[in-house]
Specification:
Length: about 400
């Protein structure tokens, strides 16, 4: 028996709606590491005809402060060192991986300059951790616990909402979403490391994670270079983020800016933050943010920026919104959005000469001072990871300084 016409129309509309929703679900790209079906293996999502790190390069411009006599000796009370530290948040269980990172950075740079290492942990460091890391350097080593008020999940987080959000974003394959400590770590690196009382008198820091590699001899005082050249922040890997992990970060930022328009620097890198030309899908899911960010497992920075009124207001706003827990905002996009809006872009520096790897990405220059990495290699992971490279967007809007 034929169905009445209105029922047939209703059925047709329902089927169309179902097909539309089905297509929408499969168009979105959940998760950070999902293989895009449209990218032939080996194809590079790049705007240049070769990676700029294939071009010969050397040290950044003078002045460069070097070792002369005992001016950087570890026990020199009047050394040329400035107010700076190498800094690492690390777990006791990552001791071997930390020693690997230390060996690389000591070999390539710090055995010459002897800047102190400062380690942070949410629980006390073991004696073994302290003993073996302090034996891995001639420089001073310091060990501090993060105060509970900087680490614990804050009182305003609704734990029911948090658990619901975890289920939702885990289903969208957001990496580490289900690990509370990962959210706590991202929040600490975003807003609290610069506020630790032990760093009250420290201005510059170099962030180092366990299990990273440094490949190139660096023969100048990097912290002094930042100071002499009036730089706020140095990066060396610049990539897109998992858009699902930060889908409301940009809307929340725009809400903040409604009252604080004057915080945006007149020479900001905002165009980099909003240029979705390489990953339009990311910009769509992140509601207007390209997701380009400095990969913050490597950072050389001036903590005055993280302590400035602008940044404290911004961080507090983000923190109160709950996005460190209801989504999985990383310290890398949070730092990058703040730098891209509030800082003069000429104060942000690409350390192209510091050869580096944190799996799965590299920064490897064509420079005779480097050993152990392939010049111009961006990743040794799957070919599709090439599309995560955001340097072309940075170079387009800011340049290569
Ligand atoms: N003490 C402590 N350190 C942590 C904790 N979670 C992360 N960290 C440290 O924070 C930094 C970032 O954490 P990772 O697990 O490396 O995060 P990631 O780089 O996004 O992830 P990977 O790609 O797995 O390296 C590392 O230096 C970790 O050692 C934690 O719960 N306690
Ligand atoms: Mg890591």
């Amino acid at each position: 028996m034929a169905l009445p016409k209105p029922i047939r129309i209703l059925a047709a509309v329902t089927i169309c709606l179902f097909l539309f929703l089905f297509v929408q679900i499969f168009r979105s790209e959940p998760g950070q590491m999902k293989m895009p079906e449209s990218l032939p293996v080996g194809q590079k999502y790049q705007e240049w005809d070769h990676d700029p790190q294939l071009d010969p390069s050397g040290e950044p411009p003078d002045p460069l402060r070097r070792v002369e006599g005992d001016n950087y000796a570890p026990d020199n009370e009047n050394s040329a060192r400035i107010n700076a530290t190498i800094l690492s948040l690390v777990r006791n269980s990552e001791l071997e991986e930390m020693l690997q990172s230390m060996a690389d950075l000591e070999r390539t740079w710090n055995h010459k300059f002897n800047y102190p290492w400062t380690f942070f942990n949410d629980v006390p460091f073991t004696d073994e951790f302290k003993k073996r890391t302090s034996a891995a350097t001639k420089a001073k080593t310091y060990y501090h616990q993060v105060p509970a008020e900087h680490w614990d999940i804050p009182s305003w987080i609704n734990m029911d909402l948090y658990h619901e959000s975890v289920s939702l974003l885990v289903s969208q394959k957001v990496q580490y979403m289900e690990k509370p400590s990962y959210h706590q770590m991202c929040r600490w690196n975003s807003g609290f490391f610069s506020q630790h009382p032990a760093l009250a008198h420290t201005q510059y820091y170099w962030r180092v994670e366990p299990n990273v590699h440094f490949f190139c001899d660096v023969d100048y005082d990097v912290f002094r270079w930042m100071q002499d050249h009036n730089k706020t922040y140095g990066w060396n890997v610049n990539i897109h983020d998992s858009a699902e992990s930060i889908s409301t970060l940009w809307p929340e930022t725009l809400k903040f800016l409604e009252d604080k328009k004057e915080y945006v620097h007149e020479n900001s890198a905002r165009a980099w933050l909003e240029d979705g030309s390489k990953r339009p899908d990311n910009k769509r899911v992140a509601h207007g943010y390209s997701t380009c960010h400095f990969w913050s497992n490597f950072e050389i920075g001036d903590m005055s920026f993280w302590r400035s009124q602008k940044y404290r207001d911004y961080f507090d706003h983000l923190d109160k919104s709950g996005g460190f827990f209801y989504e999985r905002w990383g310290d890398a996009p949070v730092h990058s959005v703040a730098l891209g809006l509030f800082e003069d872009k000429s104060k942000i520096h690409w350390f192209r000469d510091i050869g580096y790897q944190h799996i799965p990405f590299f920064n490897c220059p064509n420079n005779p001072k480097c050993k152990g990495c392939a010049k111009g290699r961006f990743t040794d992971g799957a070919a599709w990871l090439e599309r995560e490279d955001c340097r072309p967007i940075w170079f387009k809007h800011v340049g290569m300084d």
